[in-house]
Design goal:
- The protein has 741 residues and is an all-alpha fold.
- Helix content is 64%, strand content 3%.
- It has a 4-stranded antiparallel β-sheet with strand order 1-2-3-4, with helices on both faces.
- The longest helix is centred in the C-terminal third of the chain and has 24 residues.
- The chain is elongated, with a radius of gyration of 34 Å.
Length: 741
Amino acid sequence: MGKKVKKEVEPPPKDVFDPLLVESKTAATVVLMLSSPEEEVLAKACDALYKFASKGDENKVTLFGLGAVEHLYKLISHEDPIVRRNAIMVLGIMASNHDVKKLLRELDVTNSLISQLAPEEDVVIHEFATLCLAHMAVEYTTKIQIFEQSGLEPLIRLLGSPDPDVKKNSLECIYLLVQDFQSHAAVRELNVIPPLLELLKSEYPVIQLLALKTLEEISKDGETRIILGENKGLDCLLQILETNEFSDLHVEALAVLGNCLEDAHTLQLIQQTGGLKKLLSFVGDSTVPDIQKNAAKAITRAAYDSENRKILKEEEVEKCLINLLEINNDGVKVAASEAISAMCENSASKRALGLQGIPQLVQLLSSDNEEVKEAAVTALANLTAASPSNARAAAEAEVIEPLVNTLNAQRDGAVANAAAALTNLASQEPFRVNIQSRGIMRALAGPLRSTNSQVQSKAAFAVAAFGCDADARTELRNAGGLGPLVELLHSKNKEVRRNACLAVMVCASDELTAVELCRLGSSMVSPVEEKQELSGQRSSLSKSSTGEKGLRKGKGKKEDEKMKEVAQIISKVQDEINLENSHWLPPPDFILLDYINDASRTILPLTTTRGQVVALAQFVADKMGGPIERDKLHDFSWELHVSEVEFELKSNVVPIGKVKKGTFYHRALLFKVIADRIGIRCSLVRGEYNRAWNEVELVEDSPQGIAGLLLPPKKYMVDLMFEPGFLIKQGSAEADQYKHI
């Protein structure tokens, strides 16, 4: 056997650099490494920066200052999956910083991040890409980018991810996106309801909470509520309320249910399954103010619909509301009072609430909280309107003195409704005398000087109600109230002018007051442009809460004679109007006046323009035949109804208030008329083939984290036919469908 010879090792090539392990103790050096062409260096550099950024906000600021964001942005599209993953991890962590988010928007990073949400990508990439998007989606512009770049679909798909962090980040991003109304229809079409309901079963409370908050936002849309019911979502929500261990989710679950209660069909479904009784019982047993407040608000929204009010009455919702008035929380008291105001539209509820709730409401008039006082006096005004029994109950509860004192309240709504409530009581002689003895005319002198048209109108009408008494007229004259009353004759608001004219005619029934009115520049007859309004005032007054009876009753025969003189003056004015206007005039529309008064009482107090628009849309639809299913529009025989009205009037000019089955243009016209009277800005657009619609401009809330940011208004069409109150974004497919046959 031969001798082994050691094989010689070939020397390494002279032109190859041996691997070198680079270590760095400074972030700046690692940021420079992000420009390396070597994938291993890039991956390790990103990993080091991720650990550095995770330690605190100061480190994120440091990396931002070193220009790391621009380098990382290029790397999130790198062909190497590890480099791409590590780069996205760093950006996901850093995106919580405001300056980083701003720069990422400028770099238009959303499209690159959305592309990383593909099913074949690593779950870590999904986690940090969605985290980055969630951080950025608090900004309005980023929401628009994600929506326009089709980011909703992959985000909804990732709600089914096996990783809880991916679910949480995707859900948070979706929640932020649906704050913008245009996303509601998009998520509905992408079938978001089933995965959201599935997430309610999650073992992670933060995921459950986000799912509920998202459901709360999108369930403001009627079609979404239908889908929620079809997927047994109502049962899921009620089950959460019945589970004590989910007590931290009860407020949000109740908020979703509150939205669902707005639909008569859904409310009836909940009632049939016993869910409504359970819900009211749950509210009664709860000791959490937010739950009680949200429940009362939900009842308020539901009560805007006449069918809903009937259902709520059947479940004796009045007991629940009256109990909430006694809760030691101002927010609950306000919400309960507002719900009582809404339920007053149902006559049976009005009687029940009057018998049991008036004493509690009277007590609230002494509250130090001005919002509580306003809500309580508004409820009292609604309860006593056209209800002698409730007026008696209020007087027996010693409401008169607190109401007179409320005429000096800080909030205009409280003052206006205090004047209205006192006018309601004045329809009964003993109460009118009692009110006059407490200096009502002196107290009204202040509201007459108000700059708020609602206060001016209610105060002037109250003067007309109490001015039939000689002592009351003297009191108003001595208090300096005639001057501001005369000034109201020049108001730009028709209702204010009309009520001021009536008050002037009533007060001018004695010589001293008439002389003073003339001295102040007034006359016994209203200006020419107001004569037509005065012609209908008597009928309007007779339908009001005061009624002519309150004006006619005075101190003995002498006052009756004076009121006859006032009636003669009105008749004389009418004769003069007929002479000056020999051409045909349309008949007064007293039903429309009632609509305007109702809207002023129930819709005007709402705190947001969006809420007013939605409530008015539902109000109009309710008066004109209710919502109509799209596929049954041809069965809605409005033409026959209008023809019958024309035959009844022997005229083809029909007062809008007489139309009880109205189509697009009837509803749009009524919406426009009432909106103009209560101060909601909108336009009336006429299309073809009996189509017309209203357009409104609404300003969205500022995004989270940017207080005081004024966003440009968005234009919406108001659905008055199919889903009354639904706001359709102008230019959308839904808008086009609403405009055309």
